[in-house]
Amino acid sequence: MVVNPSSPMTRVLATGAPAATLLVRLVVGAVFLSEGIQKFLFPAALGVGRFAKIGIPWPGFTAPFDGVFEIGCGFLILLGLATRLASVPLVIDMLVAIATTKLPMLFKGGFWAMAHEARTDWSMLLGATFLLIVGGGSWSIDAWLTRERNRRA
Questions:
Q1: Burial degree of 79 (CB within 10 A; 0-12, 13-18, 19+)
Q2: What is the number of structural domains in the chain?
Q3: Which of 39, 81, 97, 126 could staple 141 via S-S, CB 3.0–4.6 A?
């Protein structure tokens, strides 16, 4: 089967990023995968209980839903498969995390207290945004798939 190299899916998977992008994928993917798993291992502290404590609606649904996305998207990012698509929910996840946990800290404890607590959130937000922009890099399944598609076209 010949796949059109200019198809929308090929454009989403295509990446001109260097092999070193693997390092960003490893940290972003591993952190999200780990955090997603922990939402199920420690629901009172990191899952449903935490979501209820910070006021996220329907914590019995939203915490597991978030955990599944963090596990699935984190795993895809580690593989470098559909990296840009997997980054979108994680960017949204981090924006919600910052809005619901760090902005209240800013207003209560000031900038420096918030900045200290938000360092991981900002790192994950910027890492996921970076992957959304550049894709999985040359050492990714995305790059392999687009090379194969271009070779067959």
A1: middle
A2: 1
A3: 81
